[in-house]
TrEMBL record:
Reactions the enzyme catalyzes: an N-terminal (5-L-glutamyl)-[peptide] + an alpha-amino acid = 5-L-glutamyl amino acid + an N-terminal L-alpha-aminoacyl-[peptide]; an S-substituted glutathione + H2O = an S-substituted L-cysteinylglycine + L-glutamate; glutathione + H2O = L-cysteinylglycine + L-glutamate
Family of this protein: Belongs to the gamma-glutamyltransferase family.
Entry-linked PANTHER family: GLUTATHIONE HYDROLASE, GLUTATHIONE HYDROLASE PROENZYME
Membrane-crossing residue ranges in chain numbering: none
Pathway given in the UniProt record: Sulfur metabolism; glutathione metabolism
Organism: Stella humosa
Residues making up the signal peptide according to the UniProt record: 1-21
Protein name (Swiss-Prot/TrEMBL): Glutathione hydrolase proenzyme
Taxon lineage: Bacteria, Pseudomonadati, Pseudomonadota, Alphaproteobacteria, Rhodospirillales
Length: 577
């Protein structure tokens, strides 16, 4: 059966959906691309950031592959066609729902700092932090990649098709060529550091130095060979042997060399960690725990706003947004102080305590913004840390996949900034994930929890999320790229689906509005003026932003069937059968 795009209203006429009984309260501010309809499928679905990648995942699902099988195929194609965002040279967090076992697992494939890296990694000779882009470009920022090892572990546990088969769509595209997408072409503009890399320069740019334009057929035989090696040899082919040696050489040979060794690559281990889950109204919302701050921050916000009725106010209401934005402010204050690699800095156990969140939520004033929030004192706090000021900027990718048996993947994957460290090795780019650490190791005489340490994972904001109903059934999965704004983007889509009853497409298209414990950042769309005015009246400093979220979301309907949405701000699609 071919995929159909149906408006949600058409679906509602044919299915009995007690949880979706009526239209959203209040009319939402117009979303972006209002003509874009949610995608519908009966059996399986992939929502991913690029149509070629989504098609590869769909092919695997059609062949009887599991959600994890499809995720691997999608990731390998993304490495080729969305090289600015994610790839085998980076890291990822994957939430996996096993329908038969009714088990949620979270896989941590986050990069690690090389063993020899220390707290002063990003301090210059004068003891001051490097400028951000000086730290990004070159070997210093490159973390030990984790995505492939993590996917291998997930495949061992949940794979159905042979590992090697999952690489075939990407290998064929890398060998035969793919058309450069408009977004990739746009990201190639003005990237002098990428152009200067001896491998990436000739691959992405023309002899006169201009970027190859959208539509150009680009083949990547070096990546085809690398993927073939991993297809045959597993993640060992990346973490040991000649490819690993080339990674080490590229990091050591860069203008700003890093200290990564073969032992770092050999020693990398993905982790299976406990999900962070909170009850929220009729549901249970689960996300990725540390080293991501995403799951904890979203759980804190939901815990703080649960006592308020957001549905009655509706998505056009400054009062409803005020509650979410203020709760987000408070959550970011805690995030900046307490969240880091849990293997080095244990999370204070009381951070998600209901009483603690009720107290924090009690700080929110209904008629007036708090201004800058300070971190709380959660029960069980063991050490005192100074706030982190690390910076995060756009790239990254999110995918959601549901297979025919109802198993699901929600995975955010990244090489950090656009084209990572700008170092290309054997057809793929190396990440700059270490710039997610705090550049400053201490402040006010206290250590920063997210300071650099050898072998440690940098704090992330990636927020792959899943929501379950009272009977423990999966009802939706979502996530987004966007650096620290990921938390706000994901929260927006989550609340839009849970409290405002929007379908996944309308939820992701809704204007972005968030607060990271500073100004309130609002995506300026034609209908956003009244919301901005209302928030200003409540004391918010409203800052217009361009907000290239890349949300993907899939909702599982109670009677069977899937509804998907992909962010109109990027090139994603939701496809299924
Ligand atoms: O792990 C993180 O939170 C960041 N490295 C993600 C970077 C990102 O999302 C860039 N975004 N568009």
């Amino acid at each position: 059966m071919t995929m159909r795009r149906w408006p949600l209203a058409a679906l509602l006429c044919c299915l009995v959906l007690p949880a979706w009984a009526g239209p959203p309260a209040g009319s939402p501010p117009p979303g972006l691309a209002p003509e874009r309809m949610a995608a519908y499928a009966r059996s399986h679905m992939v929502a991913a950031a690029n149509p070629l990648a989504a098609a590869a995942g769909r092919t695997i699902l059609q062949a009887g592959g599991s959600a994890v099988d499809a995720a691997i195929a999608v990731q390998m194609v993304l490495t080729l066609v969305e090289p600015q965002s994610s790839g085998i040279g980076g890291g990822a967090f994957l939430l996996h729902w096993s329908a038969a076992g009714r088990e949620l697992r979270t896989y941590d494939g986050r990069e690690t700092a090389p063993a020899a890296a220390g707290p002063n990694l990003f301090l210059g000779a004068d003891g001051r932090p490097l400028r951000f882009m000086d730290a990004v470009v070159g070997g210093l920022s490159v973390g030990v990649p984790g995505a492939v090892r993590m996917l291998e572990a997930a495949h061992r546990a949940h794979g159905r098709l042979p590992w090697a088969d999952l690489f075939q769509p990407a290998i064929a595209l890398a060998r035969d060529g793919f058309a450069i997408s408009p977004r990739l072409a746009a990201t190639l503009q003005d990237d002098a550091a990428l152009r200067a890399d001896p491998a990436a320069g000739p691959y992405f740019y023309q002899p006169d130095g201009s970027p190859k334009p959208a539509g150009t057929l680009l083949a990547n035989p070096a990546l085809a060979a690398t993927l073939q090696a991993i297809a045959t040899g597993g993640a060992d082919a990346l973490h040991t042997g000649p490819i690993a040696q080339d990674i080490v050489a590229a990091v050591a040979g860069a203008a700003r060399p890093g200290s990564m060794t073969l032992a770092d690559l050999v020693g990398y281990r993905p982790q299976v960690r406990d999900a962070v889950c909170v009850p929220y109204r009729l549901w249970r919302v689960c996300g990725m725990g540390p080293p991501s701050s995403g799951g904890v921050a979203i759980a804190q916000v939901l815990g703080m706003v649960e006592r308020h009725d957001l549905t009655a106010a509706g998505p056009a209401s400054p009062d409803a947004w005020h509650l979410l934005l203020e709760a987000s402010r408070l959550a970011f204050a805690d995030r900046d102080r307490y969240v880091a690699d849990p293997d080095r800095v244990p999370l204070p156990p009381g951070l998600l305590d209901r009483r603690y969140l009720a107290d924090r939520g009690g700080l929110i004033r209904t008629g007036e913004s708090l201004g800058r929030a300070t971190a709380g004192e959660p029960p069980g706090k063991r050490a005192d840390f100074a706030p982190d000021r690390s910076l995060e900027i756009p790239a990254t990718s999110h995918m959601v996949i549901v297979d025919r048996d109802g198993n699901a993947v929600s995975m955010t994957t990244t090489i950090e900034g656009p084209f990572g460290s700008k170092l290309m090795v054997r057809g793929f780019l190396l990440n700059n994930e270490l710039t997610d650490f705090s550049f400053v190791p201490e402040a006010d005489g206290r250590p920063v929890a997210n300071r650099v340490e050898g072998g440690k994972r940098p704090r992330s904001s990636m927020s792959p999320t899943m929501v379950f109903d009272r009977d423990g059934r999966l009802v939706m999965a979502l996530g987004s790229p966007g650096g620290a704004r990921i938390i706000g983007y994901t929260l927006k889509a989550l609340v839009a689906m849970l409290d405002w009853d929007l379908d996944p497409q309308r939820a992701v298209s809704l204007p972005n509005l968030l607060n990271r414990n500073g100004p309130t950042e609002l995506e300026m769309t034609p209908g956003a003026g009244p919301l901005a005015d209302g928030l200003r009246r409540l004391g918010h400093e409203v800052q217009p932003m361009t907000a290239p979220s890349g949300l993907q979301a899939i909702r599982l309907l109670p009677g069977g069937g899937l509804v998907g949405g992909a962010d109109p701000r990027r090139e994603g699609v939701a496809v299924g059968d």
